[in-house]
Prior knowledge:
mainly alpha, single chain, globular, 0% strand
Amino acid sequence: MDLNGSSEREFWAEVSRRPGLFVSRPSFTSLTAYLNGYDAHAYRHGGSELDGWYDWLVARRGRECNHAWNGVVRHIALPEGWEVWELTPDQDRRVMEVFFELLDEFLAEQEQSRPDRRP
Length: 119
């Protein structure tokens, strides 16, 4: 797949299939750092496809909290809560799975609402 010519949604689908190609150790913490860097670069160079991501997550969860977007993803993925910020391996897998599902859903909505953007 040519990642340079892919849509945001296609790009992140590829990251979800093979996260080890994009981060050194596939984990939600590594993916959080990667997404934050990716978004900062995009913002600096003309705009981000992730505008509204946090607000969308809060609306999806149905209530606010004091966490950044990554904490909201944790709340959605682990509604029973977690003991410490460092996730267990099972929790980490679950949060990564939900993160990619949510991101794909968000980007699909963005594609539909912005037909002028690259498909």
